[in-house]
TrEMBL record:
Family: Belongs to the mitochondrial carrier (TC 2.A.29) family.
Compositionally biased residues, Low complexity: 37-53
Lineage: Eukaryota, Metazoa, Ecdysozoa, Arthropoda, Hexapoda
Region (Disordered): 34-53
Organism expressing this protein natively: Anopheles quadriannulatus (Mosquito)
Stated name of the protein: Mitochondrial carrier protein
Cellular component aspect of the GO annotation: mitochondrial inner membrane
Membrane association type: Multi-pass membrane protein
Solcar repeats: 1-102, 112-205, 215-306
Family annotation (InterPro entries): MCP_dom_sf, MCP_transmembrane, Mito_Carrier_Antiporter
Keywords in alphabetical order: Membrane, Mitochondrion, Mitochondrion inner membrane, Repeat, Transmembrane, Transmembrane helix, Transport
Pfam families linked: Mito_carr
Compartments, as annotated in UniProt: Mitochondrion inner membrane
Principal location: mitochondrion
Length: 313
């Protein structure tokens, strides 16, 4: 039941956060491996100016997508995004809840509890992302697809989630569905550790106050706000790397055209785009992560309370 509740909570949250996920993906891929210079005559590999960048801000991104693709463009990749959220979080939150039920996340001191929570959060994230990896790849590739000046990164020609999964399988086999796997494992391990550890710690901390004890939803909402911030700060660089690894084109042997590994992507991005490149899309990523964390973990806690009332736990 804990596994099912975790997946349902994440799916509910994913519907509301997907537009920011689309914007985040576009910003992370715009100007990929282009140096941040003024574009003086004689220079190469220079980024476009903010005025010519259709994704230079969240507001401009919204306008660009609405202008080029309409309202439905903001929910691009929704099916694969929700499939990813359900598959990943049913496993991730289910494992973490099981660890909490067995008190494996509890240490002899607050510091020990935090470390155990980080460890179980990371482990559950790794297992969850392993299961859901193909959906994340398809989601990224569909969200990146546009046309003309609005196109960013490599343009895959998927017509839908099922068509993408079957097409990749026919062309690359089962290994093709897990291409870029190290990127999402790193991303999710860091993000899950930060999210679940800070959420559990903040819930315990806020639980000392009467306003939090009176309402499960209020306590979960407050803990989620703090958790979302820390998750975004720690996870954003790895999120950029995962997006680029999954979206890059491949050669005839199935090898990436731009990056060989997580370390290679990290090094090339840092060298050509600087630290800014590793935090591209930070603002929409926060507006995706914070509401998603709030909705996901609040739904999760509320679903568990309803389950306990129904079954009389």
């Amino acid at each position: 039941m804990d596994f099912l509740l975790g997946g349902c909570a994440a799916t509910c949250a994913g519907f509301f956060s997907n537009p920011f996920d689309v914007i985040k993906t576009r910003q992370q891929l715009h100007g990929e491996l282009l140096q941040r210079t003024s574009g003086a005559p004689g220079t190469t590999n220079t980024t476009t100016t903010p005025a010519s960048n259709p994704y230079s801000s969240v507001v401009r991104s919204f306008r660009s997508i609405l202008r080029s693709e309409g309202v439905l463009g903001l929910q691009k990749g929704l099916v694969s995004a929700l499939a990813f959220q359900f598959a990943m979080n049913s496993v991730r939150l289910g494992i973490y809840q099981t660890a909490e039920n067995c008190e494996w996340t509890r240490g002899a001191s607050p510091a020990g509890t935090l470390l155990r929570s980080i460890g179980w959060g990371g482990l559950s994230g790794v297992i969850g992302s392993t299961v859901a990896c193909p959906f994340y790849m398809v989601k990224t590739q569909i969200q990146a697809r546009s046309h003309g000046k609005y196109a960013v990164g490599y343009q895959h020609r998927h017509t839908g989630t099922l068509a993408a999964l079957t097409g990749i399988y026919r062309e690359r086999g089962i290994r093709g569905l897990w291409r870029g796997y190290p990127g999402i494992v790193t991303r999710t391990a860091v993000g899950s550790s930060a999210q679940l550890a800070t959420f559990s710690t903040c819930k315990d901390l806020f639980g000392q106050f009467e306003w939090a004890r009176d309402s499960v939803a209020v306590n979960a909402f407050a803990a989620s706000m703090v958790s979302g911030f820390f998750t975004c700060v720690f996870m954003s660089p790895f999120d950029v790397i995962a997006t680029r690894l999954f979206n890059q084109g491949v050669d005839a042997n199935g090898r990436g055209l731009l990056y060989r590994s997580v370390a290679d992507c990290f090094t090339k991005t840092l060298r050509t785009e600087g630290l800014h490149g590793l935090y591209k899309g930070f603002v929409p990523n926060y507006w995706r992560i914070a509401p998603h964390t709030i909705l996901n973990l609040t739904f999760w806690d509320q679903f568990k309370e309803w389950r306990d009332l129904y079954y009389g736990y």
